[in-house]
Design goal:
With 459 residues, the protein is an alpha/beta fold. It has two domains: 117 residues, Arc Repressor Mutant, subunit A (Orthogonal Bundle); 300 residues, tm_1862 like domain (pyruvate-formate lyase- activating enzyme, Alpha-Beta Horseshoe), CATH 3.80.30.20. It is built from 16 helices and 20 strands. Bound molecules: iron/sulfur cluster (SF4). Iron/sulfur cluster binds next to loops. Iron/sulfur cluster (SF4) binds next to loops.
């Protein structure tokens, strides 16, 4: 099902809201979850023998992109990087000791910051360490991905990433227009990116993903159209098109952006509308929440076969894994526990220096959270929630348990965002663009009357 852009409804429902990469969201994490709780829970999880997914956070970047809202460290300080890697090594040992070696790592993601800030030799050492600590899936089923800043690698280095075992690349593009690139301090040419894409295809990468951002300074519909034209000519398998949230009070680097250069809200909406039309015409399917993929991509197939899920990287095709998080600020999910590592490298390293797991906060998900999370997942991944399937899977009477939420969906149904009938909830073509606002109905923690500025805008 395609999406349909209704400017009036987008204006009305496109306010701030969580992205639901987890439910409850990280805002609910508290320090009452200790490293001891985490250890105990990880040990218990071995009874399930579900496969593992690893997330490794490399926080370093060579230069600052002014729009950035990530947890990153812009540095050239070699000692600082070496010390972090030493502590990461220690954390890998502590975490690996908790999980049975029989549990296979099916999924691995290197994120940042800039994972390719590390050169090939350092990445090689890190992968060798992870391989010896955990049992890596060597089959083609594995999904090992790395975020690549095209400015930090060449074609040979991309080939090296394939030799190290990565089979998916995610390239940070944002915008190809030179004026926009100047305004955000991130200069990279289409030719450089094209060379990397060709090298990646040649090296056998199964999936290449591009990240783009709309709403950046100096963007116009026409300028972004040119970026899209170039992007489409390179045919990435997946695309994520994010909304730029300009919050200079919160993110210092954004103060380098001239407010007057930010496109007006109506221009941003036009850019988004045009992007959706253009990508649909080019054969991309809208997965949901900023993500698009070619019809033969695994993400589209996972959506059809019921194995798609939301996780901390956006959407994922491996539904059943426990997620072990490694590195500063990384978030993990084991069984019914979410946990987050220390946010600053100072604290992260100090804990590991004393051989302590660097877990600082988290939450034990209770039964009600689980049910709400399952409802949100169904709507965000499949645009449909069948009451009967839900009742069978979770042993409740959905209509009874969520009677209040169903009542709160009625105005959204009257506006055409969802359809409600005796069998379930279906999201309409218009509602597909406003998934957060629909999902928020099931969130017991957000105050929907507030336009909570801890969250980015849906559109
Ligand atoms: S956008 Fe990526 S490369 Fe740029 S500063 Fe942020 S984390 Fe670093």
């Amino acid at each position: 099902m395609k999406v349909f852009f209704d400017s009036e409804l987008v204006g009305r429902y496109g306010g701030r809201g969580p992205r639901y990469t987890s439910y409850p969201t990280a805002l609910q994490f508290t320090e009452s979850l200790t490293a001891g709780d985490y250890r105990e829970n990880a040990r218990l999880s071995n009874a399930t023998q579900v496969p593992l997914s690893l997330y490794v956070h490399i926080p370093f970047c060579e230069s600052l992109c002014y729009y950035c809202g990530c947890n990153k460290i812009v540095t050239r300080n070699e000692q600082r990087v070496s010390r972090y890697l030493q502590m990461l090594d220690r954390e890998i040992d502590l975490q690996a000791a908790l999980f049975d070696k029989t549990r296979v790592v099916e999924q691995l993601h290197f994120g940042g910051g800039t994972p390719t800030y590390l050169d090939g030799d350092r990445l090689d050492l890190l992968m060798t360490k992870l391989r010896s600590a955990f049992s890596f899936d060597a089959s083609d089923k594995r999904e090992f991905s790395i975020e690549v800043d095209p400015r930090t690698v060449n074609a040979d280095e991309v080939r090296r990433l394939a030799e190290l075992g990565f089979n998916r690349l995610s390239l940070g593009i944002q915008d190809f227009n030179p004026l926009v690139q100047q305004a955000v301090n991130r200069i990279q040419t289409p030719d450089e990116v094209q060379n990397l894409v060709l090298a990646a295809r040649d090296a056998g990468f199964k999936s290449i993903s591009f990240d783009l951002i709309y709403g950046l300074p100096r963007q116009t519909v026409a300028s972004f159209d040119k970026t899209l034209e170039t992007v489409i000519s390179m045919r990435p398998d997946r695309l994520a098109v994010y909304n730029y949230a300009h919050l200079p009070q919160r993110f210092k680097g954004q103060r380098m952006i001239n407010d007057a250069d930010i496109p007006e809200p109506h221009v941003k909406l036009d850019i988004l509308h045009h992007t959706i039309d253009r990508l649909s015409q080019a054969g991309y399917e809208y997965i949901g929440m900023d993500h698009f993929a070619l019809p033969d991509d695994e993400m589209v197939r996972a959506r059809q076969s019921g194995t798609l899920q939301r996780n901390f990287q956006g959407y994922s095709t491996h539904r059943h894994c426990d997620l072990v998080a490694l590195g500063v600020s990384a978030i993990g999910s084991i069984g019914n526990v979410f946990s987050q590592n220390a946010i600053t490298t100072m604290e992260y390293e100090a804990l590991l220096e004393n051989d302590r797991l660097p877990i600082r906060k988290g939450i034990v998900v209770d039964r009600d959270d689980q049910l709400r999370g399952a409802a949100i997942q169904a709507l965000m991944c499949y645009d449909r929630l069948s009451f009967q399937d839900f009742d069978t899977a979770h042993g409740i009477d959905f209509k009874d348990y969520f009677a209040r939420e169903i009542a709160r969906l009625r105005p959204l149904a009257n506006d055409g965002l969802v359809a409600l009938d005796a069998t379930g909830i279906s999201i309409s073509r218009t509602g597909r663009l406003l998934l957060r606002s629909i999902a928020m109905v099931f969130d017991r923690y957000v105050d929907q009357s507030q336009n909570d500025n801890r969250f980015s805008k849906a559109i």
